Amino acid sequence: MELHQISGSIAFKFGHSPRHAVIRMTGTPEFNSRNRMFIAGMGFVGQVLAQDLKNQGWTVSGTCTSSIKKKKLEEERGFDIHLFDANQPDVTSTLEIIKDHTHLLVSIPPVPGIGGPILQNELRLRRALMGGNLQWICYLSSTSVYGDSGGAWVDEDYLPNPTSDVGRLRLAAEEGWLNLGQSLGISTKVFRLGGIYGPGRSAVDTIIKRGALSESQRMRGYRRFTSRVNVQDICQALKASICTSSSR
């Protein structure tokens, strides 16, 4: 099991990169074309990674929450998409699909009162994956698990201390996926991400579109430091993680 934090701004202090920090990787790793990725939560990161893998010969499937988005992703991007409602999670059909894949990326945030939607029926999940083809599981978490550091620098050695309900739910989901992976003998990773930006998604893009800044964007103006990471850097780190796991 491994835990990684990817965060651009947080990675530097007086010109020093913290141990194990993932900053940027170049080059294109080689992948086995028989690999099949299932992305639970085809959001911003999920779609970028899915396209990268598809371009390299992977079969990519995933979930989204609306019929309109499902149709768009299938017709315009060529992905195999399944509807999944995190607020009323019915994992039966989803598990049947996941177990036929070799890799699983979980990008669905926990829901208040529910927790990690796919983890809700852990016994059924364990049974399904035990007889499946999964080799790699990755859960995309958040730096919210660190809570309020009081201005101290946060790196991979900083102990989680969530002060919000969202952070506590994130940490519980991390532990759930890590424990599940360990019990099944599947290589399992957790990536704690800062604020994600990329093409079409930044404060500059919002200004260009003459849209209103989000609450998190407005709050950055009052902070001396912020934690941000580019979507392409996340995807490069994820692909490097897959290659590292497959080479062991």
From TrEMBL:
<dbReference type="Pfam" id="PF01370">
    <property type="entry name" value="Epimerase"/>
</dbReference>
<dbReference type="InterPro" id="IPR036291">
    <property type="entry name" value="NAD(P)-bd_dom_sf"/>
</dbReference>
<feature type="domain" description="NAD-dependent epimerase/dehydratase">
    <location>
        <begin position="133"/>
        <end position="203"/>
    </location>
</feature>
<keyword id="KW-0413">Isomerase</keyword>
<keyword id="KW-0520">NAD</keyword>
<protein>
    <submittedName>
        <fullName>Uncharacterized protein LOC110771525</fullName>
    </submittedName>
</protein>
<dbReference type="GO" id="GO:0016853">
    <property type="term" value="F:isomerase activity"/>
</dbReference>
<dbReference type="InterPro" id="IPR001509">
    <property type="entry name" value="Epimerase_deHydtase"/>
</dbReference>
<comment type="similarity">
    <text>Belongs to the NAD(P)-dependent epimerase/dehydratase family.</text>
</comment>
